[in-house]
């Protein structure tokens, strides 16, 4: 598989795109007006302990308090911690298991704690944090106050797992745990030794700063987007890293020289006249990330709907009718859909609960093959996930790690007209609402002369010559109503003023 990384930087935005076989599969964006928090380490103060939720809220000096669940409290806070709660095999980050003690037994109000952000603030929620600190390096993750060695589940070769664990065991510092990352596969002792040495030096600085800083305080800020992405994904299978900014090019080369000198030659500075993303035709693809409908091969398409609770993805055959039997046509459509769904989930960075509604198939073997193909499509996905088999109704339910808002929520905001509903009231419904407004005004008997300011399209509905609603209202209620056509007023809004003083009275008789 051909894999490339493109880095585009402007004054206000940095974008990192990952291409697999010339297809965009992942996009990360960092803007100057927003601050990435995942990975940051803070010295915080416990403000509230909630036994009923088994959670606490921590003041970290930000507008929103951080959320700390009991399952994210490390072993150093538990007196009856038992090793049986840990799995020997673990993914390449900290596994957080429920402990035996309740949160009120280990944390108290106004207690100072060292915590790390594991999930960005999303919607009205503050960041989620954990007391288990992890400091990622190139090949290992250093875990203070731990004594375990764990290996990434994405390393599938058991002999290699055994070799890595044995090799790292002799290098593990006292009082620290280590997680062997996927990138460590095939690496030698010298690679691990230099990585661990660098992480221990960094931890020493962080610990010293934490001891000297009054809470709440930021103790460590995670590396900027470019460096963290290069650290995590610039491996031997990446053919090229193309950077269009000279300063960022120097950063990438310098970092590559420190952690992977053999890859330094694969970093290129783009000097072309056309924008880098235009050269690879990525901008139209990025624009389509916001669209609800996604076309796939032969006229079939997906409908992607995102809500706060879950994401639903519906598969439709569209114009694809096939040339053989119906079951075969549906199966081929579902296979193509599975590939595109996996790509869109990664590309849009969709997390949480995801329901994929494939077209119903009666053949049990076809359902099994679809499930295996769907799982295989996520083999290069860096996020943790769990995928259930296809149900008899053609649904695949899955969860995917969500550490930040999806791209849809990151680059857009709720519609000020529909408030995120995605639909607006019809002209007929708005006309009826306005009629009810005047019914209330009639009952109050305070005013008789009005200016009604509305969108011209709504005015057409109200004053249609064949059925003039305004004329009818004036006749029934003895009102004088002057319609003001205003293109700046949304179709689902209206304003009413008194004709005498031109005072707006819309809210007086609104529901």
Describe the fold and architecture.
This protein is α+β, with helices and mostly antiparallel strands. The chain has 4 domains: 3-31 and 226-283, eRF1 domain 2 (Nucleotidyltransferase, domain 5, 2-Layer Sandwich); 41-222, OB fold (Dihydrolipoamide Acetyltransferase, E2P) (Beta Barrel), CATH 2.40.50.140; 290-400; 427-509, Hypothetical Protein Ychn, Chain: A (3-Layer(aba) Sandwich). 29% of the residues lie in helices and 25% in strands. It has helices at 103-106, 158-169, 189-212, 225-233, 246-259, 276-279, 283-288, 326-348, 364-376, 407-411, 427-444, 456-462, 469-477; strands at 3-9, 13-20, 23-31, 41-50, 55-59, 66-69, 112-119, 128-130, 135-136, 140-144, 149-151, 176-180, 217-220, 240-243, 267-269, 293-295, 301-306, 310-316, 352-357, 385-387, 395-400, 449-454, 480-485, 495-498. The chain has a 6-stranded mixed β-sheet, covered by helices on one side. Strands 3-2-1-14-15 form a 5-stranded mixed β-sheet. Strands 4-5-6-8-7 form a 5-stranded mixed beta barrel. A hairpin with a 7-residue loop joins strand 20 and strand 21.
């Amino acid at each position: 598989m051909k894999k490339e990384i493109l880095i585009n930087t402007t004054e206000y935005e940095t974008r990192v795109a990952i291409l697999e076989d010339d297809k965009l599969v992942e996009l990360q964006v960092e803007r100057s007006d927003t601050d990435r928090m995942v990975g940051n380490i803070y010295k915080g103060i416990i403000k509230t302990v909630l036994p009923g939720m088994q959670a606490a809220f921590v003041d970290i000096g930000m507008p929103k308090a951080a959320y700390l669940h009991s399952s994210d409290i490390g072993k150093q806070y538990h007196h009856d911690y038992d090793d049986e709660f840990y799995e020997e095999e673990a993914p390449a980050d900290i596994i957080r298991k429920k402990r035996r003690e309740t949160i009120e037994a280990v944390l108290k109000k106004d207690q100072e704690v060292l915590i790390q952000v594991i999930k960005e603030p999303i919607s009205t929620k503050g960041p989620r944090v954990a007391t288990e600190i992890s400091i990622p390096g190139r090949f290992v993750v250093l875990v203070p106050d731990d004594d375990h060695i764990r290996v990434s589940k994405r390393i599938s070769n058991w002999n290699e797992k055994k070799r890595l664990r044995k090799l790292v065991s002799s290098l593990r510092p006292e009082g620290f745990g280590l997680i062997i990352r996927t990138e460590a596969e095939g690496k030698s002792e010298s690679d691990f030794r230099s990585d661990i040495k660098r992480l221990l030096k960094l931890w020493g600085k962080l610990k010293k700063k934490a001891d000297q800083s009054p809470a709440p305080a930021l103790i460590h800020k995670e590396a900027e987007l470019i460096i963290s992405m290069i650290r995590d994904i610039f491996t031997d299978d990446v053919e090229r890293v193309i950077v269009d900014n000279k300063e960022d090019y120097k950063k990438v080369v310098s970092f590559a020289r420190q952690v992977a000198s053999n890859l330094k030659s694969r970093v290129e500075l783009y000097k072309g006249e056309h924008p880098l993303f235009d050269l690879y035709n990525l901008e139209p693809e990025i624009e389509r990330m916001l669209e609800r409908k996604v076309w796939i091969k032969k006229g079939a398409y997906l409908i992607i709907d995102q809500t706060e609770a879950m994401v639903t993805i519906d598969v439709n055959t569209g114009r694809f009718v096939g040339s053989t039997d119906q079951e075969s046509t549906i199966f081929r459509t579902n296979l193509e859909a599975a590939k595109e769904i996996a790509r869109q989930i990664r590309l849009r960075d969709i997390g949480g609960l995801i329901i994929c509604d494939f077209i119903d198939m009666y053949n049990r073997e076809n359902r099994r093959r679809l499930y295996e193909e769907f799982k295989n499509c996520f083999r290069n996905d860096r996020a943790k996930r769990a995928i259930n088999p296809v149900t008899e109704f053609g649904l695949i339910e899955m969860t995917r790690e969500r550490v930040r808002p999806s791209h849809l929520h990151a680059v857009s905001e709720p519609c000020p007209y529909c408030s995120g509903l995605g639909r607006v009231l019809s002209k007929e419904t708005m006309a009826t609402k306005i009629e009810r407004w005047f019914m209330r005004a009639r009952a109050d008997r305070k005013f008789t002369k009005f200016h009604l300011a509305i969108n011209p399209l709504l005015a057409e509905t109200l004053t249609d010559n064949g059925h003039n609603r305004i004329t009818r209202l004036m006749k029934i209620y003895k009102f004088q109503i002057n319609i003001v056509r205003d293109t700046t007023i949304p179709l689902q809004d209206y304003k009413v003023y008194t004709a005498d003083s031109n005072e707006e009275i819309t809210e007086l008789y609104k529901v």
